[in-house]
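2024-03-11 09:14:02 DEBUG pipeline.ingest accepted 1 chain
2024-03-11 09:14:02 DEBUG pipeline.ingest length=625
2024-03-11 09:14:03 DEBUG pipeline.predict start
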Amino acid sequence: MAVLVAALLGLLCLTVPLAWGQGQPAPGPAAPAAEQVLTWTAGDSYTGYLSAPSTAVAGAATIVFENSAATGNTTGMPHTLTFDTSNTDYNTDVTLNLVANPADANGGRETAQVTLSPGTYRYFCAMPGHLMSGELTVTAAGGGDTTAPQASAAVTGDKNADGQYTGTATVTLTATDTESGVDHIDYTLDGGTSTAYTTPIAVTTPGDHTLTYRATDKAGNTSADQTTTFTIATPTTKDTTPPQTSATVTGDKNADGQYTGTATVTLTATDTESGVDHIDYTLDGGTSTAYTTPIAVTTPGDHTLTYRATDKAGNTSADQTTTFTIATPTTKDTTPPQTSATVTGDKNADGQYIDTATVTLSASDTESGVDRIQYSLDGGAYQTYTAPVAVSTSGDHTLTYRATDKAGNTSADQTTTFTVAAPPAGDTTAPQASAAVTGTQNAAWQYVGSATVTITATDDKSGVDRIEYSLDGGPYLVYTAPVVVDRAGDHAVRYRAVDKAGNTSAVATANLTVVDSRSGGGHCAESDNRATVIVGTVNSGVPNRVTGNGCTINERILDEQAWKSHDAFVDHVKHLTDALLHEGVIDRREAKAINTAASRSDIGKPGHDHGDRAASDGSDRLVAR
């Protein structure tokens, strides 16, 4: 069976064109080989190359890729060596796609001539199901960047009289590199496992601590290890003093001192011994709520907010109150809002905006408050203003605007005029793009099971080059086939088209709702719709996006599954993030954050309880509320 699969893959590989190095001709008479030879080898494995270079010097190079019996391939399986030109986090100036098949005329050994630039290249195997990838760091000829980055650490938090941190010490690491730039920072805490630094490190365990850190630049230079030491105070029963609390109310006021529109209450607490644990409040005698963010109150009338704080030794402060009044909008407000417009952007010598003019609108109202701002561009229909208006169509433009307050007063129309310079002669008209949503709908116009979004575009000048789309706020992907949305919930498909002259159409949105027709739930191994990717109880901060197979990132991580070891789980997450990077679901920084969360989690460790998510969910919901 392995031989049959390899033979079939070999036939498929015959349809994959070989791509040569940038600026190189198609295969012909052999060109002189570059002095620098970089060699990759492959064998039976589809999870990694057998060998690969990690560094090179900028300039000409001969790429050698061998996948043969001599390098350990016993099944006849073909592999590719492909340089990634779609991810701008890496160098994209070399196009390479070598297919090495042990059964081909070259016996599985392929070569190409390329010219490398300083920086980092990402390479991978383009064969479906292959997870082979890596990075090649190229330094400038003559040695290039040989200077390691400068790294530093800052520790912050509340301290007691002995200089010890109470409750939590937060370590923030920074690094600078004036040559190739900083690639990453690593750290270990108290001699533990080396971890990639992504966010400030919060340490709460009482005792003395040493954090060791270093930084590596994009040329591969690593700074010497540096350390910072600090001590977390041990809470004792001697702390019998409750925290100190205060409240600040902010917002616009009328002549009577009443808040117009919204009053925002900010609560603070300090404790110099065991440290503050939490703050609670009630509004107008309602339910006690944990304070996490400033409280916005908009209901007209008198209000009383009662608050208190509890420290980590269990001491709770006495209830304190702050009172304020939200003004009731009345018909006495007959004054419309004040409005203004500002146009920004690069200008040419004639005062015309180059490429894009951005119009920012603002309004103020000291009585009932501003309700909305509306605008009309070049005589079009009025639209609600939510963000600065970017105008890229060349020619003269007039933007008319007005504002309405909460008492219903609307300002007189005002206008601002500007001109966007015409681009060089040629096609300056963006394509026309449209989307059609199809599928079975119920009586509420919701799509049952799935919906298919078909996007089309036309351009009668240079012609359409490509269509791009974004699902539910994810990265833009190149549209190649209708988009099938089969996950229950509300969805937004944003799309745009680019013509061969580089003109891009305005972004349009197709909104739809999918309901699940199956009584047994979804097709994913587990259900997890949390807002961010949480591994075990560790929050990575990465948005929990829907991936290509209809499951969220959390659902594909499978942290509720029983794993034979922590290392096996971490390795699984690494392979998943590599695949998501290739699919365009996440970027390189987000991949690092997810892998770091997996390393810090307890998944697969002895005694790990697979029910941790329930506790984590409850805690997360409490904080969010």
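2024-03-11 09:14:41 DEBUG pipeline.report The first strand starts at residue 37 and ends at 42.
2024-03-11 09:14:41 DEBUG pipeline.predict end
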